[in-house]
Amino acid sequence: MKIIYWSQSGNTEKMARLILEGIESEGKKAELLEVSSVSLDDVKNEGILILGCPASGAEELEESEVEPFVKSLERNIQGKKVALFGSWGWGNGEWMTEWENRMKSYGATLISEGLTVQECPEGEDEDKCINFGILIAKSE
Q: What residue intervals traverse the membrane (predicted)?
């Protein structure tokens, strides 16, 4: 399993680390990677991909690193299990709904609804991230 993320302010990175904690609490292993260090070859043999990106601009994926990576998955994610997560500071979560629909159109199987947290995960939101990791680990 690979947790691939992009984070500007650290909120999505914190979510990634909490999701990893949940996965590891179930005795599973996952690798935490920033999207800038990942190529398509790194994910071709993965059964589960966990992708994280905050809402950017007018509720869209980050343009310079995440968007090109996600686009590269179009013909390479058929039948893979995918989990999506990210933080946001404005809007209504439209970016996550669009991302989920896009992954489905690429042939991915979503493990669950995408996990979103407003701003920095704290308290109850930290628990949500850990539980999301547990859910992912149990889907393996």
A: none
